[in-house]
Amino acid sequence: MKVAIKEDLIDLIPVLMESLKKDLDQIRISIEAGDLEEVSERAHSSRGAALTFGFNDYAEELKDMRIAVVSNDWPAINESYERLNLLLDKVEFHAGR
Predict the structure, then answer these.
(1) pLDDT above 70 covers what percent of the chain?
(2) What distance in Å separates the CA atoms of residue 3 and residue 86, rounded to the nearest whole number?
């Protein structure tokens, strides 16, 4: 998946990716601990970062995760986590907007 971002943000991509990966790791730990409040909080903060960089598919998946948390839908939470992992692995950022 390719994401076009403002040229002045390109140098910040490594920071974004490190932050999103760290948050996703914490989300996994929180899922395993049953701490849905932490899952929701991490998803919310990561969503803001993703939106700032135009990583809209990732942000949308984080929104879906938060909806699953509110519904206490564990299968959907876990599926969302897996989709987030795939999105992070496949994203390529380039200057273009």
Answers:
(1) 99
(2) 15
